[in-house]
Amino acid sequence: MSSFMNQDFLLETETAKRLFHEYAKEMPIIDYHCHLSAKEIAENKRFFSITEVWLGDDHYKWRALRANGVAEEYVTGEKSDKDKFLKWAETVPNLIGNPLYHWTHLELQRCFGIDEVLTPDTAEMIWEKCNIKLQTGDLTAKEIINQFKVKALCTTDDPVDSLYYHKQLKEDPTFSVKVLPTFRPDGALNIEKTSFSNWVKELEQVSGRTISTYGDFKKALEDRVNYFHDVGCRLSDHGLDSSFYTPYQESDIETIFNKALANEKINEGEAIQYKTAVMIYLGKLYAKKGWAMQLHIGGLRNVNTTMIEQIGPNTGFDSIADFTYAQDLANLLDELEKNGRLPKTVLYCLNPRDNYMVATLAGNFQSEVPGKIQFGTAWWFNDQRDGMEDQIKTLANVGVLSNFVGMLTDSRSLLSYTRHEYFRRILCNVIGKWVENGEYPADFKQLGKIVKDISYSNIENYLGFDQVKGKGLENDENDISMVWGRQ
């Protein structure tokens, strides 16, 4: 029997152990999709308690607490930080088989040097040790990032954001990590929402354009893409939770846009037409800039009306949707490809039944850029051992695993960088089994390269971060060949 979460945790073969310890373990991190706060990083926030940094915005932990019968006042309510932490300590021993059990202890081990298992009996001691280190040690926002050897991270940002803190970080000579924005235009796409016309007014203000037509709107969006690009953005991100492609006429989009500006109700068919047009327009802009487009497909969000009314949206009441979208996705990619304006694209599916569909669709639109269309890492409810193994094996079966751009945290917590280690251990274990089963030669020069590439190098090359201006890097202007470099 192996000891609990020892140095060979999740590594079941000698090959897997060698691949992780000699090749994967010390690789730096590019966290190309997360929800961290640029403001907290720029201000080098020091956290008051383990609850603040650990439980404050973690929907995974909130859902586990609720499933364990913990009252909401201990989850998002008014109970003290210590009371919330103690409830988490009561919950953790019950999480056998849940990745939260491993993540919790990886974070305690790697961030706080605590090897004890979290239980109600150890909770007081762990609470004190963690808080002393947070309040007096080197676990500020910037130091946590440095501790994990993060070279770049990409936050998630509204196009109307000023990016003030990103610019501040870009000019900070004491912090070498690139904190780059990601263009997330939900406000521009969600025309059916009552908030749409107000969002357009915000876009007017930040772009300095009067927006009275759909043409004005497109120009303002292009202004913001250019602005984000100048600050270092090389990625967009889109959450697609329902149908997103249907044929349209440009004149129809103008009519639909005008209705929305007048706060008239937009029906479902009109909303899909509009989203199709905007996605195609934005996709062309992204290709022009050499950006990668991320499509997160299949969330069923905010389904508990009672709780959403009590504590607000995006608080852990989401699930996996089951709508079918193979034809929508194929049509979207195909339409952009027809015009020679299909950007690098990373496809994430939330429903694991769609893994092979998405992975094979990606294979239809590859080009001279290695892995141009990516089947993205296991996402959200799937970023656990089974989900990661399934994603890795699916990609290997129908694509080129060696070109995979690897792991991201998709997290609001700075402590979540341990998930990169979790992923690397799982990756090495899968590959190690193939080698020991005689399915791939024990060529450690090639195996080590594959592991290092997936852990770090592929995403660095894919996004061309070595061309981002600032911190000793050069500006690519609009030269796609440089951003898509090393062709």
**The CATH topology of the largest domain, please?**
TIM Barrel
Low-confidence stretches: 472-487
General form: globular
Radius of gyration: 23 Å
Outline the structure in words:
The structure is a single chain. The protein has 2 domains: 46-136, uronate isomerase, domain 2, chain A; 149-483, TIM Barrel. The protein starts with 13 loop residues before the first helix and ends with a helix. It is of the alpha/beta class and 487 residues long. The model is unreliable at 472-487 (pLDDT under 50). The chain has helices spanning 14-24, 38-42, 50-54, 59-67, 81-91, 99-112, 123-136, 141-147, 164-170, 186-189, 196-207, 214-231, 250-261, 268-289, 305-311, 326-338, 355-363, 385-398, 418-436, 444-463, 480-483; strands spanning 29-31, 150-154, 178-180, 235-240, 292-297, 299-300, 319-320, 344-349, 373-375. Helix 1 crosses helix 20 (444-463) and helix 18 (385-398) crosses helix 19 (418-436). It has 21 helices and 9 strands. The longest helix is centred in the middle third of the chain and has 22 residues, at 268-289. The strands form 3 sheets. A 4-stranded parallel beta sheet has the order 4-5-8-9, with helices on one face. It has a 3-stranded parallel beta sheet with strand order 1-2-3.
